[in-house]
Amino acid sequence: MWRTTVDIERNWASVMAIADTQAHLAQFSRPHNWNDPDMLQAGNPGLTAEEEATHFALWCFFAAPLMAGHDPRTMTESVQKLITNEPLLAIDQDVLGQAAVRTQPMPEVDVWSRPLNNGEAWLIVNKTEQALQVIHHNGQRRLNNTALATIPTAARVLPLRGGEKIALAPESTREIPAHGCLPIIHQIQE
Question: Second label for 38, Cα 20 to 30 Å away, from 52, 58, 106, 140?
Answer without folding.
Answer: 106
